[in-house]
Design goal:
By secondary structure, the protein is of the alpha+beta class. The protein has one domain (41-184): 2-Layer Sandwich (Alpha-D-Glucose-1,6-Bisphosphate, Chain A, domain 4). Helix content is 30%, strand content 27%. The chain has helices spanning 9-17, 55-63, 65-72, 156-184; strands at residues 43-51, 77-80, 88-91, 103-107, 111-116, 129-139, 142-152.
């Protein structure tokens, strides 16, 4: 009789920790119990920006670890495994950021969606929301980028997280625009 392999959580964690930077991890199932929001009426916001750069370059900042790391500089790095359930991590000091977040869906050079978590100092850190980023080339070398952040729960802790990200994305998108447009000139 053949018996399936089984791993303890500690063994899986040990394997994950041993992966060198930039190594590809196996995609993992998406855990729906991490999400508080469900149904049609989702608490969300949208940010949009026009960028004088090709859509493929704008999309790369969201899906290519080297492009993201170059943009953020310093000790920052990213782990992107562009597959359903693959890693989607922005690590601002090289170790802490969107740890454990995952790719939900993507259309190459047009759209990527991923799970997202709050900063470590927020009570909602262990919960997940999700982000959808869409890039549309509106003219040669001109891109419209639309970011929709969905899935915020209810209550004071979620209010803090909602406000934090509404402000944060309002800073990130112009920073990306500036970097992309500077590279085009």
């Amino acid at each position: 009789m053949i018996r399936p392999l089984s791993f303890t959580a500690a063994a899986v964690l040990t394997l994950a920790v041993l992966l060198p930077a930039g190594a590809r991890a196996e995609a993992a199932p998406i855990d729906p119990t991490l999400f508080d929001a469900r149904g049609r009426d989702l608490r969300s916001f949208t940010k949009e920006i026009d960028i004088d750069a090709p859509a493929a370059r704008a999309y790369a900042l969201w899906t290519d670890a080297a492009a993201w790391t170059q943009l953020m500089g310093g000790e920052s790095r990213a782990n992107f495994d562009l597959e359903i359930g693959g890693r989607y991590e922005w690590l601002f000091n090289g170790t802490i950021g969107s740890n454990g977040c995952q790719v939900l869906s993507y259309i190459p050079d047009r759209m990527v969606s991923f799970t997202w978590n709050a900063p470590p100092d927020q009570a909602t850190r262990e919960r997940r929301t999700w982000v959808v980023v869409e890039t549309t080339e509106t003219a040669p070398g001109r891109t419209h980028l639309r970011l929709t952040h969905l899935g915020f729960g209810q209550g004071a802790d979620w209010d803090t997280t909602f406000t934090y990200f509404e402000n944060a994305w309002g800073r990130v998108l112009p920073m990306m625009k500036q970097a992309l447009e500077a590279a085009e000139n």
